[in-house]
Write a structure and sequence with these properties.
Blueprint lengths: L10 H45 L2
C-alpha cells in the first residue's frame, strides 16, 4: 500500500487542518478518559458511603 502525502499547492491548508483535527481528537480522548476516571472514583466513594451506612444498621 502506497500513501501519497503530496497535497500540492493546497498543502499549506491541508496539513495544518490535519494537525488541528488530530490535536482536537487527542484532546477529546484525553478529556473523556480523565472524566471517566473522576466519575469512577466518585462512584466508588459513594458506594463505600452506602456500604458503611448499610453496615451500621
Amino acid at each position: 500500500m502506497h500513501f501519497d502525502f503530496d497535497a500540492g499547492k493546497y498543502a499549506v491548508y491541508v496539513w495544518p487542518a490535519f494537525a488541528v483535527s488530530a490535536a482536537a481528537f487527542a484532546w477529546m480522548i484525553a478529556g473523556s478518559l480523565l472524566l471517566s476516571r473522576r466519575w469512577k472514583r466518585e462512584t466508588e466513594r459513594l458506594q463505600a458511603q452506602l456500604d458503611a451506612r448499610d453496615g451500621a444498621r
